[in-house]
Design goal:
Elements: E1 3-5, E2 14-17, E3 20-29, E4 32-41, E5 44-52, E6 57-65, E7 69-77, E8 95-102, E9 107-116, E10 119-124, E11 129-135, E12 141-146, E13 151-155, E14 158-162, E15 165-174, E16 177-179, H1 196-205, E17 212-221, E18 232-233, E19 242-248, E20 312-318
Parallel strand pairs: 19-20
Antiparallel strand pairs: 1-6, 1-18, 2-3, 3-4, 4-5, 6-7, 7-17, 8-9, 8-16, 9-12, 10-11, 11-15, 12-13, 14-15
Length: 351
């Protein structure tokens, strides 16, 4: 399958692929930051993006394309995930049960909290009872009821995004109550709420390996016939068929050969016509006549033939025979010769 890669692009740069142009921009609205990819092309304009933290930094982005779609990715560097002195507890799947004492009334109270669509955790120290609820998707909520008939709950409406992944969470703490049983090894400082978002994120996604990640931004449909620009790999496998081109050269001529274009002309002899002879008596003989020059060779040149309208190209060049001259003409006739006779009258002898 044919593929194309823009390579690493700097923030603010654009990338053109034939008739398509891709850009990536930051959109900030009502305290939310979105990395939004745009694609403009023959089909019109389209956009798509993801929400990120306002503290995230866009390092670079890229476009990866195949024959039917182009995908935009972004490399994002997030600040180090800082949970402060708040360890990440092992969350319960859906139900939390606890017994605690109201310090004001001295009454033991049992309570059960149910988390729908997410997970939760409870931790205590001598001063604070802390709750953190986390979910991967929006719409999760928690509800609790205690032995005295009090109820409460709420939705996991807070969001925190790190490394392109978003957690939905809620948190609370209360110093009015104390744990009756042995306190777990997890302890929270009084300002644990500063780190609750980071703790909630790790409850869902685990401890991140690094602060930099490559994130999917959006995917756009494309037509390969309109995406001929850029550097395509294996452009022969496009699914658009093969373009066949056959070029046949001209048939080269022959000297004094009126039948050269006729079928079977190569079997004819090619002798130039005789020249007229001088008729008077005693002239010298006519010279021989050389053959005529041959016609040029049949030559075909196919220059670079790029196209995005076909998957393959098959180019065939058929050259024809070269031209040539006839054989030499026949020798001239010998001239008529003449005989010169010289004589003298005899002189009589002296008497």
């Amino acid at each position: 399958m044919a593929s194309n890669s823009s390579g690493s692009l700097a923030p603010g740069a654009s990338y053109t692929l034939g008739e398509y142009t891709f850009t990536l921009s930051n959109v900030v609205s009502e305290g939310e930051r979105v990395l939004q990819a745009h694609c403009s092309g023959p089909e019109g304009n389209a956009a798509g993006g993801i929400s990120v933290s306002t503290s995230d930094q866009l390092q670079s982005w890229s476009v990866e394309a195949d024959e039917t779609e182009a995908t935009v990715y972004a490399k994002i560097k997030s600040p180090e995930l800082n949970t402060g002195d708040v360890p990440v507890p092992v969350p319960a799947a859906s139900s939390l049960t606890e017994t605690y004492q109201d310090r004001r009334m001295g009454t033991n109270i049992s309570a059960e909290t149910t988390v729908t669509g997410g997970v939760g955790t409870i931790a205590f120290n001598s001063n604070i009872r802390a709750y953190i609820y986390a979910a991967r998707e929006s719409g999760a909520y928690y509800a609790w009821i205690d032995s005295e008939g009090d109820t409460g709950g709420g939705s996991l409406s807070n969001t925190f995004t790190y490394n392109g992944k978003t957690v939905y969470y809620a948190s609370s703490s209360d110093s009015t109550y104390q744990e009756l049983s042995a306190a777990p090894s997890i302890t929270y400082s009084a300002d644990f709420t500063r780190y609750a978002a980071a703790v909630a994120w790790t409850m869902i996604y685990g401890v991140p390996a690094s602060g930099e990640s490559e994130n999917f931004i959006s995917r756009f449909p494309i037509d390969l016939r309109e995406a001929g620009g850029g550097s395509w790999q294996d452009p022969g496998d496009t699914g658009y068929g093969t373009l066949h081109l056959t070029v046949t050269g001209a048939l080269s001529g022959r000297h004094n050969d009126p039948t050269a274009s006729a079928e079977g002309a190569e079997f004819y002899s090619h002798v130039p016509a005789d020249n007229a002879k001088e008729a008077w008596y005693g002239c010298g003989g006519d010279g021989g006549y050389g053959g005529g020059g041959g016609a040029g060779a049949s030559t075909i040149i196919i220059n670079e033939f790029p196209t995005s309208r076909a998957g393959n190209k098959e180019l065939v060049a058929n050259a024809r025979r070269h031209g040539y001259g006839s054989g030499g003409g026949k020798g001239g006739n010998g001239g008529d010769g003449c005989i010169l006779i010289y004589y003298s009258t005899p002189v009589p002898p002296n008497p």
